[in-house]
Amino acid sequence: MSSSIPYTVDLPGGIPDTMRPHTERTTTILVPKANTAFLNPVQEYNRDLSVSVIRAWNEMRKEETEARWRKNLEKDSKKKSKGKGKGKEDKTGEVKDESKDEAKEEQPAAGPSTEVSFRSYQRPRLTAQRVFNPSKITILEALSATGLRSIRYAKEIPDVKVVLANDISPSACDAMRKNVALNGVGPAEEGVAAPEGDLGRRENCNGYVQVNEGDALTLMYAHRAGKDRVEVVDLDPYGTAAPFIDSAMGSIADGGLLCVTCTDLSVLAGSNYPEKAFSNYGGASANTEYSHEVALRLVLNSLAQAAARYGRHVTPLISLSIDFYVRLFVRIDTRAVEVKRLASKTGIVYACNYCQTPAVQPFGRIMEREGKKGNTNILYRHAQNNAGSSGRCDECGSHQHIAGPMWLGPLHDKDFIGRVLKSIEGQQANYGTWARMHGMLSLAQEELEDMFYFTSNKIHGFAHMTAQPTKTVVSALLNAGYKVSRSHAIGGSVKTNAPRSFVLDILREGLKTNPVRLDKVAENSPVRRLIAKPMTHTVDLTLNPDAKLFERDRSTVFYQLNPLPNWGPAPRARTVQVNEDGSEVPNKRKSEDGEAHEAEAEAKRAKVEAEADDEEAAMNA
Ligand SMILES: C[S@@+](CC[C@H](N)C(=O)[O-])C[C@H]1O[C@@H](n2cnc3c(N)ncnc32)[C@H](O)[C@@H]1O
Ligand SMILES: [Zn+2]
C-alpha cells in the first residue's frame, strides 16, 4: 500500500492570496496562482469522459462478479442437493462456501440470519436469503497535480472506496492536500474535521482521497502483488504516458480498467518524429491523413505489448483522438489464450508516400484445424508476407514508408460504448461537456473496425481534382455493397471495408466527366500514374439515400467546433525550490532564455526536415 501522508490543512480566513478558486462540476479547488500545480481547464472533457466511463465500467464489473457469484452458488447448491456435499470443512471447522472465491462480493442480507456452522448446517435457501453485495473499488491516479480529477472521482463514482492521488511534485501535493480538505474527502479514519467553509459534504462523497507524494512508478510497482492490485489506474501525464505503462500494467486487478492520456500528438500523429514514436511506443508514426488513427494504434500496441509481458491482454473499450491528445480506456485481464492472439493483432503498415494507400502486414496468423475427434485445434503461425514487399504502391507506384508495429484489432468495444451512452442519458446537468461526450461516443460506436479513414478532399487532391461531395463518395461505396461509417477522429472522414483500390476508382470514375488538366504536371509524376491506372471496379456515383448520414447534422456536437480561449495543452507547472527563508530559488535549467533557445532549435530542426522532405518527394516522383 502507499504510504499515507499526514492529513493536515490550515486555511484560516478563507482563500489565501496565492491561490485562486476553480470550479468544475461537483468540485471547487484552489489552484496556486504561481502555477506550481498543473491545471488545464480544457481537460474538463477528459475528466467528464473518465467519470462516465469508470461509472459504466463499474456497473459492468458488478454485473460480471454477481453473475460469477450466482453461478458458484448454483453449483454449490447442485452439489449439495446431489447429497454429496455438506460443504467442505476447513481447519477452523467452519463450512467453506466455494462461492467465497468472490468472497468480497458476498455479505449476508439484512433480516433472517444466514450464518451457518458445520454442526447446525442446513443447505441455505440461497436465492431467498442471500444478497449480492459488491466490493468497493480503489482508483489510483498516478499523476494528480491539483487533485481535481481524484476528488471528482471520489464524489461522482459510486462504490469508490479510496482514490490514491499521487504526484511527485511537493507543491502539487501541497495544493492537493488543501483541496482534499476543502472538499471534505479526506480519509475519514484520520478524523480530521472539515475546515470552515467546507465546500463538499462528506456524506456526498462515495470514497475518500488519499494523497501520496512520490514517484508514480514506485507507487504502482508497490501495487504489483495480486492482493494489492487496484481496480482502476489513471495515467494523465505531461506528454507521453510511455514511462508509466509497464508499472500500470502490473498494478491493475483482473477485469480492471486502465485510463491513459498522451498529449504528445506531434510525436504520435505528426510526420516529423517517427524515431521518437518508435522509441517511446515501439512503433513508427505515419505520414498520412489517418495518422490520428495510427496514433491510437501505436499506444494500444504499446499497452498490449506491456500487458503480454505480464501474461495479460488488453481489450480496448474506447480509444479516442481528441483535439491535442489521445485518451484510451482499456480493460486488463489475464488469459494465456488471448496473449497468443496478439501477434495476429499486431502488424506494420506500408503507407504510400504519395497517395497514402495503406497495405497492412500482420505478424501472426491464426489457423483453425479440425481435430480427429471433431474438435477444433487452433494453430498460431508465422504470417505470410501479404503486403508491400515490392516497396511500391499498387495505386500510384510511389515509394512506401513503414508505420508501426501497431495494434490492428478493434479500437472500441461497441457494447461498452452503448453502456456509457445509456448511463449518461438525461445526465446533461452532471457533465459540463455532455453534448460533445454524447456526440463523440455516438460516432465511436458506429465506427467500422476497418483501417483507415480518409476524407474526400484529401484523396481527390492526390489526382489534382476538385473534391466530389462526401455523400457522392459514400454513395459509390454503398452502391457497391460496402459498409461505410464516419470516424470520430476527423470531421468529414469516412471509414469503409472497401479496398483503397475501390476508393481511388471513385476518383477515376469522376475523372470521366470531369477530367483534370495535366499539361503542367511532370511526366514522371505520381499524379499521372494514379490517374492512368486502369479501373478494376465498377463504380456507380448515383446518390444513395443512406448516404444522408454524411450530410453534417449541425445539432450534434461531434468535433471541437469553437475552441475556447487558451485551447490546447497548458504549460507545465513550475518546479519551485524554496530557500530557507521561504524565497524561491531561481530555476536555471528552465529559464525563459532556455525556452527561447529550445524554440529556436526546434525551428531549425523543422527547416532541415522540410528540406529533407522536399528532397524525398523529388526522389519519389
Ligand atoms: C498533466 S498533470 C496531471 C493533471 C491531472 N491529472 C488533472 O486532471 O488535472 C501531470 C502531473 O504529473 C506529475 N508528475 C510528473 N512526473 C511524475 C512522476 N514520475 N511521478 C508522479 N508524478 C509525476 C507532475 O508533477 C504533474 O503534476
Ligand atoms: Zn500511392
Can you tell me about this structure?
This protein has 621 residues and is α+β, with helices and mostly antiparallel strands. Among the domains are: 19-58 and 136-349 and 410-417, Vaccinia Virus protein VP39 (Rossmann fold); 447-550, N2,N2-dimethylguanosine tRNA methyltransferase, C-terminal domain (Phenylalanyl-tRNA Synthetase, Chain B, domain 1); 588-620. 33% of the residues lie in helices and 20% in strands. The chain has a seven-stranded mixed beta sheet with strand order 9-8-7-10-11-13-12, with helices on both faces. The chain has a three-stranded antiparallel beta sheet with strand order 15-14-18. The protein has a three-stranded antiparallel beta sheet with strand order 19-21-20. Helix 1 (44-81) crosses helix 11, helix 6 packs across helix 9 (291-309) and helix 11 runs antiparallel to helix 12 (434-446). The longest helix is centred in the first third of the chain and has 38 residues, at 44-81. The chain is globular. Bound molecules: S-adenosylmethionine (SAM) and zinc ion. Zinc ion (ZN) is lined by residues 352, 354-355, 357, 393, 395-396, 398. Its EC number is 2.1.1.216. Residues 1-21, 74-120, 568-621 are annotated as: Disordered. It catalyses: guanosine(26) in tRNA + 2 S-adenosyl-L-methionine = N(2)-dimethylguanosine(26) in tRNA + 2 S-adenosyl-L-homocysteine + 2 H(+).
